[in-house]
Amino acid sequence: MGNHAALIPPLRRGPATAARPLREGLAEIAERLSAAGNVAVLLDFDGTLAPIAPAPDLARLEPAMRATLLSLSEMPRVLVAIVSGRALEDVRERVGVAGLIYAGCHGLAISGRGLEFVEPEAQRRELALRLLSEQLAARLEPVSGVLVENKGMGISVHYRRVAAQDRQEVAQAVRMLTSQWGERIRVRRGRQVWEISPAVDWHKGRAAQWILRHAAGPDALSIFIGDDLTDEDAFCALRDGITIKVGDAAGSAAEWSVTGPAEVGAFLLWLRSRLE
Ligand SMILES: [Mg+2]
Predict the structure, then answer these.
(1) 2 Cα: distance to centroid of ligand 1 (angstroms)
(2) Which CATH superfamily is domain 124-198 in?
(3) 143 CA distance to ligand 1 centroid (A)?
(4) Residue 226 burial by CB count (10 A; 0-12/13-18/19+): exposed, middle or buried?
(5) Cα–ligand 1 centroid distance for 275 (angstroms)
(6) Which residue intervals of the chain bear CATH 3.40.50.1000?
């Protein structure tokens, strides 16, 4: 890199690359829906279907949202999949709708509608991740408000409840302990969380493509909605479909944007009415 890197101007992020408000796209989306066969609706959970909670365990799906997901999934040409950073069992219980496909740990584990998938390389690193999770928990024990969550094929270090002056310490511990594992693991920053995962060639985008291929048919129109950095992989992978960013639209690879879970719920109701 060196001098070469210095010659490349920084990536401009701003209005030029921002997702546009979804309400401006509804007419176009309605046209695509009427031309489509099967429709696959792929949804993130936290910050997308459910508001971000002060602690991950407090995130709840509104009954109205659950009813909307159920009614969508019962439509003959609609497939609904939840693609979350949470552990598979966790997100399945939290959503609590049978007949959906669930993908946990950013897609490393997928289950539902007769499909089962586990990314084999990630599974082989579960023991190493458990060890790392124990090291992190021990190292961060004195920091008030931090939560180290071992999800099997991933670790989340939540710092939403950590005081501002202690957050540097969390970042340092994550950096120090994860660096010992070299290139075998990957660290990414989400919304008030460090996401540690096995460095495998798999992410929400690959998982979404896998679900489309196995459950929705080759000509299905995909709709992906998500709010976080890891959802950008899916926006990039599903460029032929409809992509919707929840929250800050600037710099997102998604085509459209909404403000929060309430608008996601309204869009899903609108979608149902268009597919009837
Ligand atoms: Mg999210």
Answers:
(1) 35
(2) Trehalose-6-phosphate phosphatase related protein; domain 2 (3.30.70.1020)
(3) 25
(4) buried
(5) 26
(6) 20-119+202-275
- CA–CA dist 74, 251 (Å, integer): 35
pTM (2 d.p.)? 0.90
Which fold would CATH assign to domain 20-119+202-275? Rossmann fold (3.40.50)
Half-sphere exposure of 221 (CA within 13 A, CB side): 17
How remote is the CA of residue 1 from the centroid of ligand 1, in Å? 33
161 CB neighbour count, 10 Å cutoff? 12
CA distance 59 to 179: 31
Query: Is 166 labeled as catalytic in the residue annotation?
Result: no
Beta bridge partners of 244: 225, 256
- Tens digit of each residue's pLDDT, the chain (276 residues): 333 433 444 444 444 478 999 999 999 999 999 999 999 999 999 999 999 998 899 999 999 999 999 999 999 999 999 999 999 999 999 999 999 999 999 999 999 999 999 999 999 999 999 999 999 999 999 999 999 999 999 999 999 999 999 999 999 999 999 999 888 899 999 889 999 999 999 999 999 999 999 999 878 999 999 999 999 999 999 999 999 999 999 999 999 999 999 999 999 999 999 998
CA distance 207 to 109: 9
Tokens representing 174? 């994550």
